[in-house]
Write a structure and sequence with these properties.
alpha+beta; six-stranded mixed sheet
Length: 154
Amino acid sequence: MVAVLFGDDLFVGDKPGIVQLIEASKFISEKEFALIAVENIPREKTNRYGVIEIAGEVPGHPRLRKVKGLIEKPDPVKAPSTLGIVGRYLIPRSVIETLPQVAAGKDGEIRLIDALIAKLKTLPVYALECNGSRIDTGTPEGYRNAIKTLGMLA
C-alpha cells in the first residue's frame, strides 16, 4: 500500500487523517483495496471536490463506507452524496500503475481519482469519514484560516 497525502489539506485533531485510514483499513476484509478520506461538505460545494457514491456501510465501523462510484467535481444537483474526497489515500501499487493509461480530464490534468474510477470494477474502494478538523489551504481564505489555526496551536 502507498499513502498519498495532498499538501493542500491539513488535518487537526487527536489523530492525523492518514493514521485514521491505517486504523480503519483493519476493518476491510479484501487483500487489495483502496481507502480514501472523505468529509461531509455542503452540497453547493460538491463542484470543488471528488464525491463518492455510497454502496453501503462496513459492519463494525460507523464511519467506513464501501464506495459504488466516484465523480470528479459534480454539479451540486447531480452529486450522489455530500461526501467529498479530502486528500488522504491508501492505495495499492496497481492504482499508480493505471495512471499512464488514464485519459487526461477536461483541463488536461491526470488525477488520482481518474485512476480509481478506472479500477473501480476490479478494485474494492472504501471511504472513511475522518474525525477532527480539515483545513483546506488550496484557497487564499483557507490558507489564512490555516495560518490562524496553526498559529494558535504553536
